[in-house]
Amino acid sequence: MSQLTTHVLDTAKGKPAIGVRIALCHHKKNKWIEVAKGVTNDDGRIPNLLKKGTVLELGTYKLRFETQSYFTKQAIQTFYPFVEICFQVTTEEHYHVPLLLNPFGYSTYRGS
């Protein structure tokens, strides 16, 4: 399993959010550097966001979810054009950072 996983659940539908573009960025030397990207599958996940065997450097990261295009494809107006979740990688253990999403709100938590 990848050291970092995520999934997106459309809480308005109660179903996985398919086709959400996600970028993983590392904060280094006062700037964000993209280290991985992908698009959610039919289960709202990106199974290969990190290449097999990749271990993230310790530090601050963010996942950027492109929510505007997800809702636009469904002809749904949204308040948030994108969602960024910043978090700390402090060990080599597994990190799961999900996004619970609807057109006018979102939440996240550290999963398992």
Number of structural domains: 1
Class by helix and strand content?
Answer: mainly beta
Mean pLDDT: 96
Q: Beta-strand percentage?
A: 35-45%
- The stretches of 5 or more residues where confidence is low (pLDDT under 50) are none
Order of helices and strands: EEEEEEHEEEE
The backbone outline, from C-alpha atoms, is globular
CATH superfamily: Transthyretin/hydroxyisourate hydrolase domain
What is the CATH topology descriptor? Immunoglobulin-like
CATH level-1 class: Mainly Beta
CATH architectural grouping? Sandwich
Taking Cα atoms only, what radius of gyration do you get, to the nearest Å? 14 Å
* Order of the strands making up the biggest sheet: 3-2-9-10
What count of helical segments does DSSP give? Answer: 1
Total beta-strand segments: 10
In this structure, how is the largest beta sheet organized? 4 strands, mixed
Give the helix proportion (percent range): under 10%
Give me the secondary-structure topology.
Elements: E1 4-5, E2 8-10, E3 15-16, E4 21-28, E5 31-39, E6 59-65, H1 67-72, E7 83-89, E8 95-96, E9 99-102, E10 105-108
Parallel strand pairs: 1-8, 2-9
Antiparallel strand pairs: 2-3, 4-5, 4-6, 6-7, 9-10
